[in-house]
Every structure is written in C-alpha cells, then in structure tokens.
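User: Show me a protein chain along with its predicted structure.
Assistant: Here is one chain, sequence first, then structure tokens.
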Amino acid sequence: MSIENYKPDFAVEAAYDLTVADLKKQGIKAVLVDLDNTLIAWNNPDGTPEMRQWLHDLRDGGIRVIVVSNNSPKRVKRAVEKFDIDYEAWSLKPFTFGINRALKRFHYEKNEVVMVGDQLMTDIRAAHRAGIRSILVKP
C-alpha cells in the first residue's frame, strides 16, 4: 500500500475556498463532493451561508456539483434536495462505484471532474483509484 494513494492533489481549508475561476483553469466541469463534514457539517443541515453562496457561484459558473456519499439514498436526498444538487448514494468509497456511476450518468470524462472530501481513507483513496484529481478539505 503506497502512501501516494492517500495523498490529495490539493488541500484547502473548506470546499468554498475553491473558486469558479480556479476550477475552470484546471478544466473542471463538475465537482464531486462528499456530504458529511465536507459539504455540510453534521450539526448544520441547512449549510452555512458561505456554502450556499459557493453552490450558487458554481452553478452560475456552469460547474455542476454532485454529492458522492456512502450514505443511503434517503439520507442523501434529504440532505441535498434543498440545495437542488445531484447525488450518488451508496457509493462504497474507497471503491470507485459511486464515482464511476456519477461520471457515466452525467457524461463527464475523468479529467473534467475533481473529488472533494475530508477523508483520506475514503474520499481521496476512491479518487485515486478512479483516476481523478482530489482535494482534501479540513473536516
């Protein structure tokens, strides 16, 4: 097992530090994002104003946000429906099932997406296995 498998391509304080301009410069058309402690804190289901603004900015900038979560469809749907974003549940990270399903379902190439998450063992590992770039956020 190589430590490289758990090394993110980038690290940021929070998901909303990723700007539309930066993502576009990298050729990113969709952001795959973990749900708990990345998109929303477990104790703040409505999301922070910064997070809601970030989702709005990405949407305006033509970048799709897709939640890729190991949670059940019911749990993920309840969490994201108010933000009007797509999701893949039961993604089985660190395996690539959810990421691959999202790429296929929404017609993206591996070089057009990035996985954003707070867990090296699941989010970052899954991204590496799937051959896509990864960004680690602080939980």
